[in-house]
Amino acid sequence: MLGLGLAIEPQIWALVFVMVRIGAAFVAAPVFGAVSLPLTVRVSLSGAIGILVLSTHSIVPPPNVFAVGTFVSVAAEALVGLAMGFILQTAFAAPLIASEMIGGTMGIGFASSIDPQNGRSSPALGQFMSVMLTLLFLSVDGHLVLVDMLVKSYEALPPGAAWLGADRLRAIAFFGGYAFLAGLLLALPVGFLLLCLNLVVGMMSRAAPALNLFSVGMPASLAVGVIALAVAFPAMGDYMLVIIRESLGALQTIILG
Question: How far apart are CA 193 and CA 228, in angstroms?
């Protein structure tokens, strides 16, 4: 009996309790939290990892389902899972920030479509860069590192004592600023060339006011932007790997200390 006349198998209740943290992480994390991923797949993965956690850790769920302590424990589990997914999701916002900077300067900021990751409209250039970051994330086994951190989190933050301290919450907040820094550095090679082009166009407009620069500046910005993207994309890919390593390192620091 688990309270209010409710009877449930202890093993099933333990599995459901463990799945709270894992499911919350999958909801907030990239790749796993994509709207295109069916809910049944997400629940099945949470259950499979939950069985792995129960086989490697001694998890004691709250004795009563309908109790204040149970609700507090479930909230703590959800907080830990959401924090883990939020760290990775913050890193995945860097390409969108970079695309806003580059696309606005190139004049293609109006080109947008529905992002399959979150179901919202986003710049086409940002979707391209997000797809590349996702492929790099999968190529370096970032999804497996996330699963490994989820399993290890039950040892570092066992259920019942899973509240994140003020120092860890502060680290999560500070890591949110890394998304803007990473987006700026990601857009820096192309953005610098476009800035130089705008300076040249501005000098031409002052030197020859009668010259119609709108018919020259827009095609020039688009051409320079496309060429700069083609040339700088290998270096941008290398920095995307740095973003992934930083996010996984921050995840490890938050969970394991």
Answer: 7
Radius of gyration over alpha carbons of the chain, in Å? 23
| Cα within 13 Å of Cα(50), Cβ side | 25
**Cα of 115 vs its chain's centroid, Å:** 14
pLDDT at 118: 64
Q: pLDDT digit string (tens) for 224-236? A: 888 888 888 888 8
Domain ranges across the chain: 10-256
- Cα(54)–Cα(65) distance, integer angstroms: 19
Tell me the pLDDT tens digit for each residue of 85-125.
Answer: 888 888 888 888 888 888 877 777 666 666 666 666 677 78
How much of the chain exceeds pLDDT 90, in percent? 2
